[in-house]
Design brief:
13 helices, about 60% helix, mainly alpha, two-stranded antiparallel sheet
Length: about 300
């Protein structure tokens, strides 16, 4: 096992604080990148057989990073996970060694970029209805229905939806949402989405206050995203839907269906809260893939 003592055990924590404060990264990103930094320091301490200091990290070589990735791949990491791990390592080394330090170059594993898999509108509604119907109590069913409608009807990320506070009430035709890197955007609310949120607010036994989470867990605390994911897994099994039917797939469906009905990429970028247009352009491929599927299934000569 790795040795327990390192010279600067606070480095991963300091790195996490830097990501949160200076880079405005999400809580999940900070947690994941801190964990990578801890793993790297532990590995290098064993690999080098010496204490880890900022000065020593500045002398990391390509062979060291290659050995670390090989070790992580032995833990069963996929290409995509290994690529994310390498990205986190580079960021940590740049922080620890200083901006002026030249880092070793190492090409990450190739990652096949898959297209988002949207689900049909009737499947999205059926999924939300099933999740709501399977809830233990009526107010929890109303809560889950409102959260899933926000994902499909307004394109929110699951973290954005459960992160809303009572300050969004009373609802109007639009809502201000805080997304990644604390970036805010305005999203339109369909009447059905507004009605779902208002119905939940009336039923919630814990009340609604401006500075408290809008969506509550069964015991009154903030609603964990994992509870919605768990409910969706159960519902998709009941409906016979694909494993790709996740809460995030509802957001993909929102984007794909809007694009298919004539929305332009710039507007879609704003609605989704993407930092760059390149993140939104993937939906043009999704829409093209859908059209190709329709052609193949319907054209007599396909």
């Amino acid at each position: 096992m790795y040795a327990d003592r390192v010279t600067e055990p606070a480095l991963p924590l300091l790195y996490g604080q830097h990501l949160a404060r200076d880079r405005r990264r999400s809580v999940h990103t900070v947690r994941a990148y801190e964990a990578t930094a801890v793993r790297l320091i532990a590995f290098l301490q064993s690999h080098w057989g010496e204490e880890i200091t900022r000065e020593r990290l500045a002398r990391v070589e390509t062979a060291d990073l290659r050995a670390f990735l090989a070790h992580r791949r032995n833990d069963g990491l996929s290409n995509a996970s290994a690529a994310r791990e390498l990205s986190a390592v580079r960021g940590f080394l740049k922080f620890a060694a200083g901006d002026g330090t030249e880092l070793p170059r190492l090409r990450g594993p190739r990652v096949k970029k898959g297209l988002p898999r949207p689900i049909a509108p009737h499947e999205a509604v059926a999924l939300a209805e099933t999740v709501s119907e399977e809830a233990r109590e009526p107010w929890i069913g109303a809560r889950d229905w409102a959260v899933l409608l926000l994902l499909y009807g307004a394109g929110l990320r699951i973290g954005e939806a459960v992160g809303l506070t009572g300050a969004v009430l009373p609802l109007g035709p639009t809502m201000r949402v805080t997304g990644k890197r604390a970036k805010t955007r305005t999203v339109p609310l369909l009447p059905q989405v507004r009605a779902a949120i208002e119905a939940y607010a009336r039923l919630c036994p814990y009340g609604v206050s401006r500075d408290a989470p809008l969506f509550r867990g069964a015991k009154g605390g903030p609603l964990p995203p994992g509870m919605i994911r768990k409910a969706v897994r159960s519902a998709r099994t009941s409906l016979g839907l694909s494993e790709r039917t996740t809460p995030h797939a509802l957001r993909h469906s929102f984007a794909t269906h809007l694009l298919g009905r004539g929305a332009d990429l710039r507007s879609l970028q704003e609605l989704l809260g993407h930092a760059s247009l390149s993140s939104t352009q993937i939906y043009t491929a999704v829409d093209a893939a859908h059209l190709l599927d329709v052609y193949r299934n319907a054209h007599p000569r396909a």
